[in-house]
Amino acid sequence: MSCKTEKIETNEISFYVNGKLQKIKDEYPLYTSLGSYIRNVLKLTGTKVYCHEGGCGCCVVHATEFDSTTNQYKELSVNSVIFT
Questions:
Q1: Model confidence over 24-52: pLDDT tens digits?
Q2: Per the database record, which ranges form the 2Fe-2S ferredoxin-type domain (predicted)?
C-alpha cells in the first residue's frame, strides 16, 4: 500500500479594515470569524460579539463589494460572527 501526498496551495483572502489592507493565508483556524479576527487580532474591540449566532445583530459590520455585472460598488451589512 502506498500513500501519495500532494501539496495543496492555500488561498489568500485580502480585505481592508479602516483603510488598512489585511492579507490572510492559513495562519488562523478555518473557523475564525471576521468578528473574532477584528476583535482579537486587530484589537478593534468596538466590534461586538454577543450571541455568536448572528441573531442579535450586535456584530454587524459594514462591507463594500464590487459587483462586476454592474461595474459598481454595493454596500452590505454583514454579521461578522457568521462570516468565516
A1: 888 888 888 889 999 999 999 998 888 88
A2: 33-65
Q: Which grid cell is 82?
A: 457568521
Q: 73 pLDDT exceeds 60?
A: yes
In one letter, which amino acid is 1?
Answer: M
Is 18 within the bounds of a domain?
Answer: yes
User: Which CATH number goes with the domain that contains 19?
Assistant: 3.10.20.30
Domain range enclosing 19:
13-79
CA pair distance 2, 82, nearest whole angstrom: 40
Contact 33, 54 (CB under 8 A): no
The reported pTM is 0.72
CA atoms within 13 A on the CB side of 3: 1
